[in-house]
Input
Amino acid sequence: MPASMNISLPESMKSFVDEQVRSGGYGSASEYVRELVRRDQKERAQARLEALLLEGLESGEPIPLNAEYRESLLRDLKARREKKKS
Output
C-alpha cells in the first residue's frame, strides 16, 4: 500500500503542478510528483556512477584491456579456484 505524504506549496507552484497535470498527460498531482522523484533518483544514480567511473579512471596506472590481459586474468582466476579446492 502506498504511503501518503502531504506537502504545502505556494499558490504559484500549485498552479504550475496543476498545469503540468492538465497538459502533461498526468492523471493527478501525485503522479506528477512521483515522476519528478523517479527522475531525481535516476539523475542521482547516474551522477554517482559517473563519479565512481571518474574515481576509477584517476585511481592509478591504466591497465591494457587486451587479449593478453584477459588470458592473464583467467589464469589467475583458475589458480585461485584450484587453491580453494585444495
Notes: Helices lie at 11-24, 29-57, 67-85. The radius of gyration is 25 Å. Residues 27 and 80 are 56 Å apart (CA to CA).
